[in-house]
Design a protein that fits this description.
The chain is of the alpha+beta class. The chain has 5 helices and 6 strands. The structure holds a DNA duplex.
Length: 134
DNA sequence: GCCAACGTTGGC
DNA sequence: GCCAACGTTGGC
């Protein structure tokens, strides 16, 4: 069981879209570091759904339901996608500002590699964020 | 809208 | 293989 954080700009794919579709193909990743993390995802892994750019915050959780496969948006075999299913929406959003203020979360990659769209999260970090959101 | 951080590209 | 130039991401 692994934990991850997935970023999405609401203009591209919003929580409302996720609610409508329930499951979504996480495609379009064109960064090797992020791609490598996608390849490590297994069925049942839990992900934090992070809204970037517009009011940055962790806003929901989702579950990996299909491990990596060829990204359907390209023929280039370098790129892969996974399928994730919406799990739960946080009762209250966990804004980036709060994460920055939380001592236990200072080591999150989110704070160090702000441009990485797919990143691992430790179980401890997942627990803390989950608690802050519920 | 600005700009810092980072990744990628391409000339040498 | 180095590094400058450029493009993109994402916080503010």
């Amino acid at each position: 069981m692994n934990y991850w954080l997935l970023k999405s700009e609401p203009d591209a794919f919003s929580l409302a879209d996720f609610v409508t579709e329930k499951t979504t193909v996480w495609n379009g990743v064109r960064n090797y570091t992020a791609r490598n993390y996608l390849k490590k995802m297994e069925i049942g892994d839990l992900c934090l759904f992070y809204r970037s750019v517009v009011k940055p915050a962790v806003i929901a959780t989702c579950t990996v339901v299909k491990p990596f496969y060829q990204d359907p948006t390209t023929d280039n075999p370098a790129w892969v996608a996974v399928t994730v299913e919406l799990n739960a929406i946080f009762e209250q959003e966990v804004p980036l500002t709060l994460i920055k203020q939380t001592p236990e979360l200072q080591k999150m990659l989110l704070l160090k590699m702000s441009r990485l769209s797919v990143q691992p999260v430790t179980e401890a970090e997942w627990d803390i964020i989950h608690r802050l959101g519920n």
